[in-house]
Amino acid sequence: MSGAGISYVLKHPNRFAGALLRDPVGLWDTVWDRLAQRREYSGRPPYVCEADPQWQSSLYPLLGATPQQGIKDFAALWADIVGAVRAGGIDVGPAAYSGWNDGDTALVRAIWRVIQATNPARVVETGVGHGFTSRIILEALRRKGNGKLWSIDRPPLDPETRSKVGIAVGGGFKDRWTLIEDSSRRALPGLLRRLGSIDLFIHDSLHTERNVTFELDHAWRALKTGGVAIIDDIDSNWGYDAFLKTHTGLRAIVCEAEPVRPDERRFNKKGLFAIVVKTA
Ligand SMILES: C[S@@+](CC[C@H](N)C(=O)[O-])C[C@H]1O[C@@H](n2cnc3c(N)ncnc32)[C@H](O)[C@@H]1O
Question: Are residues 31 and 116 in the same domain?
């Protein structure tokens, strides 16, 4: 467990004991993830690669689609969503959700455009936090009049943080949204088995090579040909690199994030994400 993890346990022994009684395997899973994160982050430099400066125009040829209406629509909607969360006194941006980053403007705009261009029926994402990516996915699906979202998020122990999970989503998507409160390691394989196949997968949960590799190995098998995987924060670990070395039949672009303020933890003060199309 990290230093921060140990001090959390010492500060909140009841919460830790409660979690241990409720779900010892889940707690073990979390501790193991933290250890892997600590080992990976201290043992290797960031994964540095170049973003495509033209990724917004490269996106449509990548998808084999033409630009869709609704880009202006997106800017106004996004401003409204961020404004409503901020109006509740909640910080938005890098490290704003208990140290995790909220989905940035470039990532959510990319998700919006991919859904507009590909009209997915089954979307799976990992990592909900405040719920910015979830909200944009759901808004885009609603505008298309099609599609459902399954989101997996491991609930935080801290009740205050827990009360903010999915706060950006609101209550208007009950018919389209299933939130699964568990780790992706436990929930993703079974969910994908139940769904059979998926059209779009978004990784925004724990950014370690161990976790990204696990999620992508499962999601890639379930992804239809022509389906899309969007992987956030690829520069924070070597999972995307490992994925590219072990998978063929794909086209990909790397995109630069647009955080609302510099993210000092990243090599470029912004972060990177990747969009990958399964071609075979
Ligand atoms: C970067 S935040 C997600 C941000 C979100 N996509 C947004 O746009 O607001 C990461 C989230 O992943 C969750 N998480 C961490 N490890 C996880 C795991 N192993 N499985 C599922 N969720 C996990 C965290 O609790 C946190 O809510």
Answer: no
Give yes or no for residue 30 CB within 6 A of ligand 1.
no
For a ligand 1 pocket test, name from 40, 97, 137, 167 the mutation site with the most ligand atoms within 8 angstroms of its C-beta.
Answer: 97
Q: Quote the ligand 1 centre to 152 CA distance (angstroms).
A: 8
Q: Is 237 touching ligand 1 by the criterion CB < 6 Å?
A: no
138-161 pLDDT tens trace: 999 999 999 999 999 998 888 899
Give the ligand 1 atom nearest the CA of 33: 19
13 Cα–ligand 1 center, Å: 23
Judgement on whether residues 65 and 189 belong to the same structural domain of the protein? yes
**Cβ-contact 252, 244 below 8 angstroms:** yes
Whether the CB-CB separation of 78 and 105 falls below 8 Å is answered with yes
Q: Residue 272: is its pLDDT beyond 70?
A: yes
Decide whether any atom of ligand 1 lies within 6 Å of the 209 Cβ: no
Please name the residue ranges forming H helices in the chain: 3-11, 13-22, 24-43, 55-63, 71-87, 105-118, 132-144, 159-162, 184-195, 209-222, 239-246
Residue 25 has pLDDT above 90, yes or no: no
Range of the domain at 11: 1-43
How many structural domains comprise the chain? 2
Residues 33 and 84 grouped into a single domain: no
Q: pLDDT tens digits for 34-74?
A: 898 999 999 889 999 999 999 999 999 999 998 876 666 89
